[in-house]
Structures are given as structure tokens and as C-alpha cells.
Amino acid sequence: MNSATAAGRLSITLRERVPQLCPLGADDVAFLTAEHRDHLALLPTDQAGRYRLTPTGHVGTIVCPCTRLIIRPKIPIEDLYHLLDPATPVAYMEDDVSPEPGTEAFNFLAARFAQLLGECIRAGLHRGYVERHQSGAFLQGRLDVAAQVRTGTSRKDRLHCTYEEFTADVPYNQVLKATALLLLHSPLLHDRVAAQVHQLLPALEGITTVPLLADRFCELLPTRLTAAYRQLLELCRLLFDGLAAGKESGAVVCPAFLLDMERVFERYVSEGVREAFGNHPRYSVAMQPLHSVAPPKPAQPDLQIRPDMLVSLDGQPVAVLDAKWKKLSTGALRPADVYQVLAYAAILGVSRAILVYPGRRNRRWQYPFDRTGSRLEVYTLRVTGSPRACQRSLRDLGNTLRSSVMN
Predict the structure, then answer these.
(1) More confidently predicted of 147 and 60
(2) What's the rounded Cα separation, in Å, for the pair 195 and 190?
(3) Which of 217, 219, 230, 366 is the most buried (most CB within 10 A)?
């Protein structure tokens, strides 16, 4: 369905992984080829100015120089909301303030971010000890000998010292503030949601403004004291990755927000698995753990693997799981998916390799390998229907996996 937008751009609606012939100008083709090669497959046709566009597992919106692409998921938008936040009932926006088509998921996540950040602020931001450096006439903390030597001893009234301050200006809160500012820079953010985010900024005034980079999320390892931040930080990462598909924040000319549905589904499945094993004292679940296959050697490339989930018993891996956002064929399993998860299992020395696919109902198949004593388990998980039915399906999957792994 094509229509002209108020801004003069042609609006084209696509569906995830479904090819469609689209009229595109030279500027749009050049832009998509340069900026969105990983998000769309673009092929010319024998008709001048018409191209075959196929979204590759991403949904959202891309604003091109002359065209606006709206990529819809292959499931209803209400079911996408549930995948993004299964613990919270969907809060629909009123018709008179509904976001632009294609930005619904972005504004849903942004509104949820504002809600969780507000709750975090009201409960009290996490605080920690941060090392500070200052110079002055009085010693605070301990003397910074190296800095004192560098400046010489001519100024007896200038003491360089180092001390620890108990403050909310810690990396966890810096990421929260950076995410809020990133949202406010996006022209895709609805005015009502922007107002919700903006009113929270005064509570973050004492937090250092830092650029939001992917490496910052890797540095924020969860601890007992920051457990309440887990969901909020995961939401920050989803928003960051989605906005990273477009231009840099600031004077945005061609903004975009794209959700990687593979990652969304993996995050959704992980919630069910984590909940199923969460109360067991001996079992633990790690999300996307990075493993080096062999110690690094000079002039030899590293070989590393990162499965979606790894279940361990007393610290020893016992099952590896990969979630695949693909329709499971009724004829045969996808060889590439099977080879990947079996390779993970072989490298990690576990006996159970598990694949999870989306579907309309829960199903399960087992493939035992008698010679090795290991087995492959394949599941489908319901992702359409009422939130209650999907939540029950996710809970059943987690309980089935737990029973299978423990037996």
C-alpha cells in the first residue's frame, strides 16, 4: 500500500521477509545501498525505476531522501508488543496522539523506558563509590604522589589528592541518561512520549553526559545491587541498537528505527528460560556467553563462539540453546541451524542441543544420537494470540526445558 506523506515523501509499506516491487529514485537507491545493506535486500528489475525490496528480519521505519519505508512484522503489532515486553499489559495510545505508522514499536519502547526510569528515580538511583581527583589547599582522601611530583613542590598550598565519593554518577546511570538524550534527539519520537522523557531529566542533572556506545553495555555486568536495573538496561540496548540503524543523533536528515526480530525473539525466549531455572540453587542460565575455543596464539586468528543461551549445573555447561526467528519447515529442519547448535554443543562438551522457533502452538521433537549419547531437541513457541495464551506458552516452554535438562 503506497501513499504520499505530509512531508512529501512517498510512503511504502513492506512486510518482514516478503519481497515487493517498489518505485525508487536514484537518491533512495544510493542511500539504501550505503546505509541499509544489512536490513534490506535490494535488487533491480527489468522495469526502469522499480526495485525488488525484501526486509531481512528487521521491522520499523527507514526515512530515505525521497521515500519512507514502513516495515511491518509478520505477526500482528499487538503480538510484537508482547514479545518486546511480556510482563506488561499493552498500553494503547489514544487515536488522536497515535504515532506515525512504522514508529509504533519505537514509541512503545520509549514510553516503557520512561515508565521504568521514573520508577527507578522514585525508588532511588543506584549509587556507588567513584574515584575523584582534585587539588587544593587541604588534603582530602590520600595524597596523589605522582601528580604532586609532576607539578613540583614550589606550591605548598596546592595538594593533589585522590578520594572516593559515594555518588549516583556511576556508569549504570550514565547509560540511562545517554539513552534518554538519544531518544529526545530522534524525530521519530512522539511528542507525548518526548514530554514523559523530558520531565525526568532534572533528576539526572548530576549524572555525567557520556556518548552511548555499544561497548558501554558490555561493561555493565549485572550484580546483586544492580539487579533492578536489568530490564531497564536491556531496554536501553534495544533502543540503542534500533536507532543505530539510522544516522547519528543530532541534525538527523534520514532517521530510522529498526528492530532485529532475531534478537527480540531471543530476548523473549531467554525470559522464559531464565524464569524456569531462576529459583534453582544449582542451575544457572547465561545469555550470549562468549567462549574462546582455544587459547590465543601469535599470528593465529581467534576462534570464538557465542550461543544464545547456556544452561549450567554447578558451573558446568549441560545444555546449549539457540532461538531462531524463522518459520519452521514441515518438511525438514534447516541444516545450517542444526549444524550451528550442534557445533556449539560439541565445543562446549554438552549433551543437549536445543533449537526454538516461533509458531502458532507449542510443539517438540527429539533427535537422539545413540553413538554420542547426546540429542537435539527442537521446539516451537506460540507467538500469536492473546497475551495470556502466549505467556502460558512461554511458561510451558521453560518448564519443559527444565524437566528435560534435569532428567
Answers:
(1) 60
(2) 9
(3) 217
52 belongs to a structural domain: no
How many Å apart are CA 103 and CA 235, to the nearest integer?
16
Which domain does 295 fall in, by range? 264-406
280 occurs within a structural domain: yes
pLDDT over threshold 50, residue 294? yes
Q: How many domains does the chain have?
A: 2
Point out the domain boundary residue: 147, 167, 187: 167
Check if the beta carbon of residue 22 is closer than 8 Å to that of residue 51: yes
pTM (two decimals): 0.84
**Is pLDDT above 60 for 249?**
no
pLDDT value of position 348: 93
From 120, 138, 167, give the residue that closes a domain: 167
The answer as to whether 138 is a domain residue is yes
Residue 267 makes CB contacts below 8 A (sequence gap 6+) with: 234, 238
Q: Which residue has the cell 495464551?
A: 389
Set of cell numbers at residue 56:
531481512
Give the C-alpha separation, 345 to 98, whole Å: 46
Instruction: Specify the pLDDT at position 96.
Output: 39
Q: How many CA atoms lie within 13 A of 407 on its CB side?
A: 7
Backbone φ and ψ for 22, nearest 5 degrees, come out as: -135, 145
State the CATH number of the domain containing residue 335.
3.40.1350.10
Residues 6+ apart with CB under 8 A from 320: 307, 309, 310, 311, 341, 344, 345, 348, 350, 352, 353, 354
Assigned domain for 33 exists: no
Kindly give, in sequence order, each residue whose CB lies less than 8 Å from that of residue 233, ignoring residues fewer than 6 positions away: 172, 175, 217, 220
The secondary structure of 298-341 as a DSSP string is TTB---EE--SEEEEETTEEEEEEEE--SPPPSS---HHHHHHH
Angle between helices 191-198 and 104-123 (to 10 degrees): 20
Same domain, 150 and 282: no
> In this predicted model, what pLDDT tens digit does every residue of 297-354 receive, in sequence order?
888 888 889 999 999 999 999 999 999 999 888 778 999 999 999 999 999 999 999 9
Please answer whether residues 243 and 214 qualify as being in contact, where contact means their C-beta atoms are separated by less than 8 angstroms: no
